[in-house]
Amino acid sequence: MCKIIAVALALISGTAGAHFQLLLPAGELALQRPAKKTLYLPFTHPAVSGQVMDMARPESLFVVHRGERTNALDSVVASSFSSAENTGASWLASHAFKRLGDHVLVIEPAPYFEAAEDKYIQQLTKTVVNVGGLPTDWDAEIGLPVEIMPLSNPAAVWAGSTFTAQVLAGGQPVPGAEVEIEMLNYEIDADANGFRAEPNVEIPVPLLETQALRADSNGVITLGIPFAGRWGIAALDLVPGSEHEGKPLSIDAVLWLDARSPLATR
User: I need a labelling partner for 239 at 20 to 30 A (CA). Which of 122, 125, 138, 168 fits?
Assistant: First the structure.
């Protein structure tokens, strides 16, 4: 009986928090000047520095700037990423943000098999990095099979304000879409290829690790952003009935945003 309880507790610990595909540089998403940045691509639980899932090479990685698409898949190299729970197989990429304006990063990862749920998960993820404060592409529809379309600039969010976006599948709104939100509660340690040891905030109860909401009848979501930091928004299972290798496939859309505060020290 003790062994059964121990295994159950281990499973609970290993699945704490929601799955989120990261597509982030270390630091802010609003750059003051052009720079070349390393992009971290782990699939993990960012609110709790939880399990890092072993991932295959991404299927696609590209950047959209002023409507022009640049392939960045050639920059992807095998790596690892460490959390408080484990070190998993991950990937790094790099991109030179040379021109002023918005650079929309997009990754289509390989499907990941989640044994605990007996299904595959594939999270098509967008992140907007701005250079020099000039808004250009942040509200551009990329044309992905599933996508979260920002209705507010995700690289220019004040902590304490709200953020609005629309969930799309096949270019059409998804009424009542299931959405999860988590904070990147552990900053990325560029020297260690992993999360830092200390969280940004202490989460008082597990229920608050992942915020859950539903899109309205037009697929629109509005969420409050209480703290400075980077936040992931995931709209789940947007193409019902999808399969991969004979198993159910949850095709999710993820968008990362950056909330800033006058007191922020990142």
Answer: 138
CATH code for the domain of 167:
2.60.40.10
How is 22-85 classified by DSSP, letter by letter? --B-SS-SEESS-EEEEEE--EE-TTTT-PPBP-PPPSEEEEEETTEEEE-GGG-EEEEEE-SS
CB-count exposure of residue 140 (10 Å: 0-12, 13-18, 19+): middle
Q: How far apart are CA 30 and CA 132, in angstroms?
A: 8
Q: Could you tell me which of 235, 178, 186, 176 has the C-alpha nearest to residue 209?
A: 186
Residue 94 — φ and ψ, nearest 5°? -145, 155
The rounded distance, in Å, linking the Cα atoms of 90 and 44 is: 10
- pLDDT tens digit string along 152-194? 999 999 999 999 999 999 999 999 999 999 999 999 999 999 9
What is the number of structural domains in the chain? 1
Buried b (16+ CB within 10 A) or exposed e, 56-89: eebeebbbbbeeeeeebeeebeeebbbbbbeebb
The 8-class DSSP code of residue 154 comes to T
Domain, as residue range, for 252: 2-260
Q: Does any domain span residue 266?
A: no
Burial of 174 (0-12, 13-18, 19+ CB in 10 A): buried
What is the pairing mode between strands 247-260 and 229-235? antiparallel
